[in-house]
Specification:
Distance between the termini of chain A: 34 Å
Helix content of chain A: 55-70%
Shape of chain A: globular
Subcellular location (chain A): Cell inner membrane; Membrane
Pathway (chain A): Cell wall biogenesis; peptidoglycan biosynthesis
Pfam family, one (chain A): FTSW_RODA_SPOVE
Strand content of chain B: 15-25%
Number of helices of chain B: 22
Structural class of chain B: alpha+beta
Helix content of chain B: 25-40%
Distance between the termini of chain B: 76 Å
Radius of gyration of chain A: 21 Å
Membrane topology (chain A): Multi-pass membrane protein
Structural class of chain A: mainly alpha
Strand content of chain A: under 5%
Shape of chain B: globular
Number of helices of chain A: 16
Oligomer: heterodimer
Largest sheet of chain A: 3 strands, antiparallel
Enzyme class (chain A): transferase
Radius of gyration of chain B: 35 Å
Chain lengths: ~375, ~625
């Protein structure tokens, strides 16, 4: 395998240098490559002016890189031990955002921490994966079969989902649900229970919808059906498809995209950045970008399969699914395949909060890789 | 995959079984991760194929769209719902309106295009300024109105010159029209261009010429009347000509709202009243507003096209405040019409029995103050019934002193005064029911002398004619009827049209009967309004007069023999009358306030009688079986 290294000894106290050696630098280079694609696209979104978006993007990525490598060196056992602390911290931030958050676009999603605007719902997804991985690490096939054992993690999913719904941010709530479900699934929950869970959700949704206030329903309608805002989301999707489609096989060339530069795409530097890439670099550029993003997800699977402990496996699957959903929802949205909005393309879109949380996730992933052979302690029956 | 729901690690336990379990767990994980991975890989493949389809298979089409053409999003406004009156007559409707529109993004040189246009249809300087401002404010593809109400000739000239007018098109819009002009203006309200703050997230607000309800029912039911915008995505060429439609989404028309006012009755009432007079007529059984008239009024059609500065000055400078609906926003002291509330408060507090006699020598002395009765010679011995009938002030001074202001205020609140009546007229005032606490919050002590004055409805009271009408309807029915205007939305009746929709006030029958008997006697038993009886075929009305000073009567005037006809009109007292009819089965409740009308019995009561006669002629007599349920009386 491309990222393979000599096994880390199972002895305790591997030195920092040894750990650094264990870091899969190929993956780090891959991330740099993705960020570079982002830099070029943002340069284009800023009409060639790096001061507009690109420069900030590079600085944020550099900062994120340091955070990621730092976390990579932290002992995975330590991370597992404090997983629930992180989870509770993220829940506390979500509560805080409901109480004191900034109102933007009709929802309360951000809190200001000095110069950064933090979106706790993004952090939440990563902390949820950590917490669930820690929980299911202790789970044998027997225990997973016991419904009582599944109740605490189910609550751990539903609490943040409820808080995120209250913001309201239906999209992120759904993604959080799916990320949680992926961990449940990979942990070995019986498939028929899984099916019952999905069915219950499908039945509960319309009932919950009935009980909402009119204005809340209106928000959900706009979310599921952006065409109901014909000058907003619906218009953007049509323009996005034109820009994207007109890119053709080879694209119009760097800074040559007409549609993006004519301001047909109102949020070209964030949600519609992929459109920009596809217009200027064509199908070739779009598929190359997509492939790089796919490799990032694939690496998560690699970490999962290589990990000798369930904690690392579940962590990697959860984080991989989270990243996958970012990419899928964003690209499917700009190609007009699914009717949702407001999801950035991580490492490429302009925006500090998403970048930081994604890099934090990769830091955890790398720690799981570096400590893939760590003795995580006997599974308790 | 093989699932073994029966299997477990066995009972052996220990290191071996844990190891075995670990292997098994890993196996399950691997299989499930593979499933997940396959799904995700499939999703990536889907995205790839989607990109291939858009960029290669349909690439040429999109390339054409991108290079030669523009996609234009056009909203079209659904027709605004109409407002209908009680009989289905349109009181706010829509009229066709041909307009010239400009889409800024479709013209290369805005100035030149406007220049050409103004050679065809002359534009004034202020119009040009307005157009430029709207172009700056709106998104580039949102059309801006150049000119409304085009004539056929102007439309023809625009069409002929279309090649020289890139981005300009003619389309059909609608304009709000109020056929009843000033007669219903205060109730129906009017529409005007949205303020920046109204924009919100409704795409309709971006439409050229969109109007939103700014007052009255138009504003209260704005969302319902407005409907939802339709949109069409069209492909247009360089000069803005539509090549083809890419996507269309139908709008949802606004719903009609039916209100309870009877237009003909409203006009008849308005014909009877003079400037400064307000009359509110309710259906006593359910609180429906049948007529709500005040003079002067205004023509709501004027707001549609924008109000000129001169017109606005004229409206706002006028002392008669034509824009203000005095029925809901005019504030008056209730005077003697409030005495029923004081009586009920006294009965409930058990500080007086109906038969208790208070002797009226023409005044009440309290401390150093002397409180006068309107009858200088005194009424002699008064019980509750005769005190209401003759409107004896001394009796109510004494009642107020016994019961205290706070219990009076609480009773007033129960009868709809000083509380939010939730009528569908934005900005309606709730008025003021003074209490001890309210006065103390102002940093002033409350004295018993204050209470005494408030016993006859004078003092700090600020009540709207609407709330007095509500009080009367509640006196007539014993139910907490709420005044309301909406009868039906989109053809579906709304709740509140039956007496049973409103809860009982919970006042003992005997008390209510006594008050009603006394109000009956005011008109029919030798009381203050004896001259205003209804013609016998309509039954009998029960009511109460009120006369409220706007200037204090000085001792000197009192001694000389105060005569209102000798003072300037604006110094004369207001005249009030509240009534319901028929006494034995109330259908109508009303309040009439004649500003500076000098006396309730002289000016307001005859007017009330005339209005009730109109109401009976148009809406009465009672439909059979409509008698108010006795329960709760």
């Amino acid at each position: 395998m491309i990222f393979e290294r000599r096994l880390l000894t199972r002895d305790r106290g591997a030195g920092i240098l040894e750990k650094l050696w264990q870091i899969p630098w190929t993956f780090v280079v891959l991330l740099c490559g993705v960020a570079a694609v982002g830099y070029v696209a943002l340069l284009s979104a800023g009409s060639g002016n790096p001061d507009a978006y690109a420069q900030k993007h590079a600085i944020r990525f550099g900062f994120g890189l340091v955070v990621m490598l730092g976390i990579a060196l932290v002992d995975i056992k330590l991370i597992a031990r404090f997983a629930w602390v992180g989870y509770l911290g993220a829940v506390a931030l979500l509560v805080l955002v409901l109480l004191h958050g900034n109102i933007g676009k009709g929802a309360q999603r951000w809190i200001d921490i000095g110069p950064i605007q933090l979106q706790p719902s993004e952090l939440m997804k990563i902390m949820l994966v950590l917490a669930l991985a820690a929980w299911f690490h202790r789970a044998s096939w027997e225990r997973i079969g016991n419904p009582l054992f599944l109740i605490p993690p189910a609550i751990a999913v539903l609490v943040p989902v409820g808080l995120i719904l209250k913001q309201p941010n239906l999209g992120t709530a759904l993604i959080t649900c799916m990320v949680g479900a992926a961990v449940f699934w990979a942990a070995g929950m019986r498939w028929w229970k899984f099916a019952i869970g999905i069915a219950a959700g499908a039945i509960a949704a319309p009932i919950a919808y009935e009980r909402l206030h009119d204005y809340q329903r209106a928000r959900i309608t706009t979310f599921l059906d952006p065409e109901s805002d014909p000058l907003g989301a619906g218009y953007n999707i049509i323009q996005s498809k034109i820009a994207l489609g007109s890119g053709g096989m080879w694209g119009k060339g760097f800074l040559q995209g007409t549609q993006g530069h004519l301001n047909f795409l109102p949020e070209k530097q964030t949600d519609f950045i992929f459109t920009m890439i596809a217009e200027e670099f064509g199908l070739v550029g779009a598929l190359t970008t997509l492939t790089m993003l796919m490799l990032v997800v694939a690496f998560c699977y690699l970490v999962a399969f290589r990990s000798r402990h369930q904690f690392g496996r579940l962590l990697a699957i959860g984080l991989g699914t989270n990243y996958f959903l970012y990419v899928f929802v964003n690209v499917a949205m700009v190609t007009g395949s699914i009717p949702v909005g407001g999801v950035p393309l991580p490492l490429i879109s302009h925006g500090g909060s998403a970048m930081l949380t994604v890099m934090l996730g990769f830091g955890l992933l790398l720690s799981a890789y570096v400590h893939r052979d760590a003795e995580m302690g006997p599974m308790r029956e | 995959m093989t699932w073994r729901p029966w299997g477990g690690p066995g009972l052996l336990g220990g290191e071996r079984s844990i190891r075995k379990e670990e292997e098994r767990r890993r196996g399950i994980f691997t299989r499930r991760a593979a499933v997940l991975g396959t799904i995700q890989l499939g999703a990536f493949a889907f995205l790839g194929s989607r990109l291939y389809r858009l960029q290669v298979e349909e690439g040429a089409r999109y390339a054409t769209l991108a290079e030669e053409n523009r996609v234009s999003a056009r909203l079209f406004a659904p027709p605004r719902g109409r407002v209908l009156d009680r009989n289905g007559k349109v009181v706010a409707g829509n009229r066709l309106n041909w307009r010239a529109l400009l889409v800024a993004e479709q013209t290369a040189d805005l100035g030149a295009t406007l220049e050409t246009f103004s050679k065809i249809v002359p534009l004034g300087d202020h119009e040009k300024t307005r157009i430029e401002r709207e172009v700056r404010r709106n998104r580039r593809f949102v059309p801006v109105i150049l000119r409304e109400f085009l004539t056929w000739e102007e439309m023809a000239r625009i069409e002929v010159n279309a090649p020289d007018l890139p981005g300009i098109s003619v389309d059909m819009g609608t304009t709000r029209i109020y056929p009843e002009t000033e007669h219903l203006a205060h109730v129906v309200g009017y529409v005007a261009a949205p303020a920046e703050a109204d924009a919100g997230d409704d795409p309709l607000m971006q439409l050229p010429g969109i109007r939103v309800g700014r007052a009255g029912v138009e504003r209260h039911h704005d969302r319902i009347l407005r409907g939802r915008a339709g949109a069409v995505q069209v492909e247009v060429n360089a000069v803005g000509r539509v090549i083809r439609e890419l996507d269309r989404r139908e709008g949802i028309p606004g719903q009609d709202v039916q209100i309870s006012v009877d237009t003909e009755l409203q006009k008849a009432v308005r014909a009877k009243i003079d400037e400064g007079t307000t009359a509110v007529l309710l259906d006593a059984r359910n609180g429906e507003v049948l007529a709500m008239a005040t003079k002067p009024s205004f023509d709501p059609n004027i707001f549609n096209s924008g109000v000129s500065a001169a017109q606005w000055r004229q409206w706002t400078a006028a002392r008669t405040t034509p824009l203000i609906n005095k029925a809901t926003n005019g504030l008056y002291a209730p005077g003697s019409t409030f005495k029923m509330i004081v009586a009920l408060a006294a009965l409930e507090a058990r500080v007086a029995r109906p038969g208790d006699i208070v002797s009226c020598p023409g005044h009440l002395d309290f401390g150093n103050n002397r409180f006068h009765c309107h009858n200088r010679n005194g009424h002699g011995g008064m019980n509750m019934r005769t005190a209401i009938m003759a409107s004896c002030d001394v009796y109510f001074y004494e009642m107020a002193r016994r019961v205290g202001i706070d219990r009076i205020a609480a009773m007033g609140n129960r009868f709809g005064m000083g509380v939010d009546l939730e009528i569908e007229l934005p900005g309606a005032r709730r008025g003021l029911m003074p209490t001890r606490g309210w006065r103390q919050a102002q940093g002033r002590p409350w004295s018993i002398g204050d209470t005494i004055v408030h016993g006859i409805g004078q003092g700090f009271y600020q009540l709207t004619p609407l709330s007095l009408a509500v009080m009367t309807a509640r006196l007539a029915t014993g139910r907490a009827v709420q005044p309301h205007l909406t009868r039906a939305i989109g053809g579906r009746p709304v709740r509140g049209s039956r007496p049973e929709d409103w809860p009982s006030l919970g006042i003992p029958d005997a008390d209510m009967r006594l008050i009603r008997e006394a109000m009956w006697a005011v008109v029919n038993g030798g009381g203050t309004a004896g001259a205003s009886r209804l013609p016998s075929q309509y039954g009998q009305m029960a009511g109460k007069t009120g006369t409220t000073q706007v200037r204090r009567v000085t001792r000197e005037q009192r001694e000389r023999g105060f005569n209102v006809s000798q003072v300037p009109r604006e110094w004369r007292p207001h005249a009030l009358f509240v009534a319901y009819a028929p006494h034995d089965n109330p259908l109508f409740a009303l309040s009439v306030i004649v500003e500076h009308g000098s006396s309730g019995s002289g000016a307001a009561a005859p007017l009330a009688r005339d209005i009730l006669v109109e109401a009976f002629q148009r809406l009465g007599p009672a439909r059979p079986g409509q008698r108010v349920a006795e329960a709760g009386r």
